Amino acid sequence: MAEKKPQLVDAGSYYKIANDYYEKGDYEKAIENYNMAILLNPLFSEAYFNRALSYYQLKNYDKSIADYTEAAELDPKNPIIFNNKGDAFYRKQDYTSAIKDYDKAIMLNPNYLKAYYNRALSYASLEDYEKAVEDFTKVVQLKPDFSEAYHLRGLAFEYAGDVDGAVSDYEKALELNPELAEAKSHLESAKTKKQTAGSGGGGGKEGGTSEIKVLRKPDMNFTDVAGMEKMKEEIREAVIYPMAKPELARKYGKLGGGGIIMYGPPGCGKCVKGNTPVLLADGKIKDIKDIYESHTSQNKKILNENETIIEQPGIEVLSLNKKTLKMEKKDVDFIYRQRYKGKIYEVTTHSGRKISVTPEHPFISISNGAKKTKASELSVGAYVAVPRELKTTPVLEPKVLLKDFRKFENNGQEMLQYCASPNHLHTRSINPIYNLDENTSRYFGLMLSEGSSIYGTMFFSNSNQDLIAQVAQTTEDTFGLSPRIKPDTSEGVYRVEIGSVTLMRFLEEVHGFKLQGSRNTRVPKTVLGAPLKVASSFLSAVFECEACVRGDIPEIEFSTASKQFANELSYLLLRFGIVARIKPKRIKDNDHTYWRIYISTNENLRQFEEKIGFMSKRKISKLKFWTDKGISGHTNTDIIPNIHSLLKETRLASGLNKTEFYGSKNGYRYELQKTMSRNFLKRILGESVSNELKQLRTLAESEVLWDKIVEINVTEVDEYVYDLTIADNHTFVAGFGGLIVHNTYIVKAAAGECDSAFINAKLSDLLDMYVGNTEKNIHKVFETARKNAPCILFFDEIDAIGGRRDAQEGAQYMKMAVNQMLYEMDGVEANNQNVLIIAATNAPWDIDPALRRSGRFGKTLFVPEPDFGSREAIIKIHAKKRPMSKRIPYKRLALATSGYASADLKAIVEEAAAIPWREAFKSGKERNVKTSDFIKAIKKKRSSLPPWYEQANKQIGKQEEITVVDGKEHKKVTDSKMGPGEKEAFRDLLKVIEKRTKWYNKGWLMFLKNVALIVPIPI
């Protein structure tokens, strides 16, 4: 009998492997190894517990609960297990079960703060606010400085009707944490309730209620909306006239307000996180939050409780001109801050650059030319623009006011002495140097790399005698201090000792230079804004001490323990046209990440050699070895991707075959590939200046490098986000390492007409995973509208929040949302005078019938396909910004597009304009858009409305079904489930459907189209 093979690892080994995977975030792999650990040892309670944690991270709460149950049986006196099991029940919204487990955790540990906190949240979710208050009270007893607990207890007080208690707790929360924005808004709301004897308000909790944005005085009106005159007049009568003159309306009993549903066929916050670095035109790098905070005293305007702008802050940034793809210096028009709750996209590129933005924030991507692409539309493998070179403009720093220094003269030379106190003067004074030069900059680089400080003394240690001499000489010649040079503890290493608190404090306050440990190293602020020669000296010293020239591949490698230092160095290198790669490396032993900067490709290495260089002969020689060889190293870094179609179009326009155009027999390959090196593209273009090659030449000579996205992570946040509005170009350089990012209707027009407030209540503002929060969000948005009357409250996609309750099997929380909408529309306490609620939908048949009754959405407006006059106006508006020939017969085009949607008309104008554009691209001869171009576009484009009419007919109309039995046709007519009264609301749509489905109507539309396209009717 064969011997049984021994196990390679035991249960403990699998457990350790699983823990490693868990730490890396690979929960699937972790579970596989926990499974093996449990298989080998079924009584391994820690393995059950950690596997439960993994399932919890994967949102598989049922399996998580099962494992916590197993762990609890094996370790019944562990309160953490019961608390975590309660968390899993909480995430399933099974709050009763969650409370039972929190009870067990508290029984085992009567001072278990987290369990009290979580149980309080569960009680609040069940609307048992008294018990929630009791638990939050216990939390603040255990941790008196827990500001969030005071805030949440305040919410519980408020929901329980104790407004005084709520105000007191909100104030205490803000006393402990003045930046707790939600507590600020809830305090204001509670105070308003108190003044108005408890009328309204909404609260929140973890995952709490949304903040509602109010847009006052929209910058558009009905003149910005083409056609739709009948619809405009209906809105004027129902909305604008009563709201514009409320006293007159009240006199005649015509109160503004109520509800309107607009339905018909189907036809942006752009921000970054507050810790995002932004490059200023003078070379300084500041977090966008700090930029905002430093300008809050000037031209600040509060749009509403969540949004603030600062106009004309007087700062400049580098901006990409999207037409020329060159970097330009531009003014910042606005700084914008918004309270944001939602998804954040963290985008990481191949070169290690990284930025976190909201889903709507655009990047500059490439697809046969540069274009804007929102973060939510990007995918791994796409390419985005990063700056190739940053031409900053150094400015002379204003002289810093030094408060704690004594100035005096010595032989005509200004001297400084730091005063720790009036009676304690440090004896070592210095010669202050305010304007940075090359020697001082090099000194900073050497000290930051190999220096340290302790108790008022700076040290520089190195085995290179030349560097020791340079540091000592600069200290004496520049600052007038005589340092001491001593042997260090290691053989052959010497140490320069500079004992002067005055020098250390002066360098920190004036230059931003400070020795604060390797993990906190920063580039001095005066170096960031220095001229190129000065910045070059600093980089040369830093790379001399910390970098190596690799012998196996052509690459310079630099390491630092400071993420900020790596970021600032990458920006500095961009000033010299060097695009470095930045890669993190996690060191487990000391629980820290080190950052490595790589400079590769022959072009980057040559730039470094010519403009920066090393200080020692050894490193100079090693770098020269590679630059003399001319080997590029990483050849896939400087490429222009996704231009194969553009290459083909350009070649055809030039009248050349592939071999002639590409200078190669294998030229066909270039139109199949997605990337091409920039140098090869330059070689193809040569010295030609023809119009056919203009777009390719712009790409080849651009000041951007196209960086591939390698990772996109999506997280949920609730915090302030920021944006800059840049003059003309609307782009700026931001993020870790430096990327180029972009900055930041009939309903809105109606608000502009009557000068009312406008609230766009988006689904993301209303729907919430926590029980009761969706209803509270709905209540809050109505309360906000009432406080800002006259106000238009707009719900888009109303069918998603006010859907038919009889169709929501098992979705009790959505039924509650509909009930809340009904209550807010005409409940006992509803007071919606001068508040107009408008809802829009493409599926009106899915809206709960109760919402469409009188007193709620009592008026239903069908927004039909545009009529003849509207089609003419829409085509004219879209044609405005394009080069049009004279005498375009817009009436004829309107006739030819009978039965088309507004979106179809826009597409037709775009296609018509594309025809002469393609011709100009190929021939170089430009012309205006002609009637014939429109005719071609209309022939090519079909109406998008028939499919929607068919869907509408299935829902509210009659359906004919023909079957053939024994060779005979049998017609079966079935009616929709809607009753006659409910159908009456859609009579306008039913008439259109009936009309559109008749054969003669289809024939008539086809006749009109053909006549208008073929016969030049004189209209």
Number of distinct helices: 38
Number of strands: 35
Anisotropy-based shape? globular
The main β sheet shows up as:
8 strands, antiparallel
Helix share, percent: 40-55%
Structural class label: alpha+beta
- Alpha-carbon distance between the two ends: 100 Å
What percent of residues are in strands?
15-25%
Report the radius of gyration as a whole number of Å: 35 Å
**Ranges with pLDDT <50 over ≥5 residues?**
1-7, 197-210, 807-811
Mean pLDDT: 79
Structure, briefly:
By secondary structure, the protein is of the alpha+beta class. The chain contains 38 helices and 35 strands.
List keywords for this structure.
1019 residues, alpha+beta, eight-stranded antiparallel beta sheet, six-stranded mixed beta sheet, 38 helices, 20% strand, globular
Task: Please tell me about this protein's structure.
- Helix content is 43%, strand content 20%.
- The protein has 1019 residues and is of the alpha+beta class.
- Strands 3, 6, 7, 8, 9, 10, 13 and 27 form an eight-stranded antiparallel β-sheet that branches.
- The N and C termini lie far apart (100 Å).
- Mean pLDDT is 79; it is low at 1-7, 197-210 and 807-811.
Which helices and strands, and how do they pair?
Blueprint: H1 11-24, H2 27-40, H3 45-57, H4 61-74, H5 79-91, H6 95-108, H7 113-125, H8 129-142, H9 147-160, H10 163-176, H11 181-195, E1 215-216, H12 229-244, H13 246-251, E2 258-263, E3 272-273, E4 277-279, E5 285-287, H14 288-293, E6 300-302, E7 307-311, E8 316-321, E9 326-349, E10 354-357, E11 362-366, E12 370-374, E13 383-387, E14 405-410, E15 413-421, E16 424-425, H15 438-450, E17 451-454, E18 457-462, H16 465-479, E19 484-487, E20 494-499, H17 501-511, H18 525-528, H19 532-546, E21 547-549, E22 555-560, H20 563-574, E23 581-587, E24 592-600, H21 602-611, H22 617-629, E25 639-641, H23 644-654, H24 658-662, E26 675-677, H25 678-685, H26 694-700, E27 704-726, E28 731-734, E29 739-742, H27 746-754, E30 757-761, H28 763-766, H29 773-787, E31 791-796, H30 812-826, E32 835-841, E33 859-862, H31 868-879, H32 890-896, H33 902-923, H34 931-940, H35 945-956, E34 959-965, E35 968-974, H36 980-984, H37 987-997, H38 999-1014
Parallel strand pairs: 2-32, 2-33, 30-31, 31-32
Antiparallel strand pairs: 1-30, 3-27, 4-5, 6-7, 7-9, 8-9, 9-10, 9-27, 11-12, 13-27, 14-15, 15-16, 17-18, 18-20, 19-20, 21-22, 22-24, 23-24, 25-26, 28-29, 34-35
Helix pairs in contact: 1-2, 2-3, 3-4, 4-5, 5-6, 5-7, 6-7, 7-8, 8-9, 9-10, 9-11, 10-11, 12-27, 15-16, 15-19, 21-22, 25-26, 29-30, 31-32, 31-33, 32-38, 33-34, 35-37
